[in-house]
Amino acid sequence: MTTTLGRTRPAAPAHRPGVGGVPLGRVLAWAAAVAVPLLFLGVFFAWPVAAIVGRGFVTDGALDLGGFADVLSRPRTWRIVGQTLTQATLGTLGAVLLGVPGAYLLHRCTFRGRGALRAFVTVPFVLPTVVVGVAFRSLLVEGGLLGGLGLDGTRTAIVLALVFFNYAVVVRTVGGLWERLDPRAEQAARSLGASPWRAFRTVTLPALAPAIASAASLTFLFCATAFGTVLVLGGRQFGTVETEIWVQTTQFLDLRAAAVLSVVQLVVVVAALALAGRARARTERALALTEPVDAAHPVRLRDPLDRVAVVVTAVTALGLLALPLVNLVVRSLRTPDGWGLANYARLAQPADVLRVSPWEATVTSLRVALDATVLALVVGGLVALVVSRRPRRTAGRRAVAGLDALFMLPLGVSAVTVGFGFLVSMDRPFGLPLDLRTSGVLVPVAQAVVAVPLVVRTVLPVLRAIDPRLREAAATLGASPGRVLRTVDLAVAVRSVGLALGFAFAASLGEFGATSFLARPEDPTLPVVIFRLLGRPGVDNYGTALAASVLLAALTAGIVAVCERLRPPGVGSSW
Q1: Does the model's pTM come out above 0.70?
Q2: How many structural domains does the chain have?
Q3: What is the residue range of the signal peptide feature (predicted)?
């Protein structure tokens, strides 16, 4: 206290070091929360991708565009690019046309068994792409249930598998917004004489357009990078840019051509992600939203919208989603000697093409996926925490939006490109006397790179749903910034960790693109083993591949089904 002319005034507070009035400790904590994910992304994503770009642009330290001129002048290249765009476009259209009615039925209507059906339609999205390819091949191959249709090895088979895989993306993305739309606008249109179809077309559809655009752009992205599915079903005849990168690397040893194709794919990915980001930002604008329970209504079969949604969803669920999975299980039980478990018994025995048994590969997959999941939860959790902030300054908001978009890149960039980049760049990286390509470290790291965006998109909606007044109230009551973060943000985010863990673990368990480059012969993962078994002739090898596919599908679907029950109510997807 100091005294001036008989009056007492408080002493000036002691100077506390900081930046712009913010305590230094808080600044350092948030800086670390940003720096750790950026370092991870820079070393294990940006650097390998840059190495790929360097292979295509630089020769002996000088800029050389001759590789682009050579590769892009080949008719085969443009045929592959055309096939990629065609198959991705057809798969996207099919997923949207079937997924919008499903989103309405599963998120806008109530009926017995809705929760179980929601969980079921999510299963295809978490299945490994190799399993999806095997499931459809076993259904369409000669001797399969639909073998007489002659669809085996055709573009139609690939498109059907792409729709199967991405149906849940449309249902969850569109349905997450649809269930929260205020129904009074549509009801007002109906009361003014509009038919159900006209009310839907003029009121509801425009409100859903951003979510549909976001779902379509992401579906296109996933269709263009469905490596395992296309490789199993289409081979080289209907290959995509991603499978061509694998072919050029593993069969032709043409690393320069593979690098050029990787750059071409990056251009497509960035364009699709930019479209998805803009569409997702529009869905987050203030709309007339309600709680899901207030917007849902019982199914009304007299209503034409409800009737169409029921018919389309029933045909899709039974004919497109359930049939390949049921057929996969049935075919795995068929042996040359009749029905039995012989194919499953061979899972414990090394085949002639393997150094380990499929069961040993399963244990390896579980161990690697666990390591990748822990890494993805740490990195993705930090990203979600930072991106969930709402800075007051325009520059801060742009920085947060940029960070969000940056960490979505691995979601669309081919895992084959990442794995190929690891092979190119991890030979004594940054001058270190260490060849990481010969270690087992790169496989869980590569899988974590793929899983981080899923963690971010799962945790982020929960953090963004926190009422800022909760933080303000805690701070008013004297809680330090660290305590506010711990008791408000982290306490709420824990509710979404279960689902994030499930998605990350399933994605890591079934990852095939990068792992096909990086897995050592003595430590293959189960997807790699399945693909190797399919590449060898023989009934026993094919039967074992079917049994291994069923095992892998059951593991991934079971994990996600358990973790889906931990999803916070009322929080939709942020894909």
Answers
A1: yes
A2: 2
A3: none
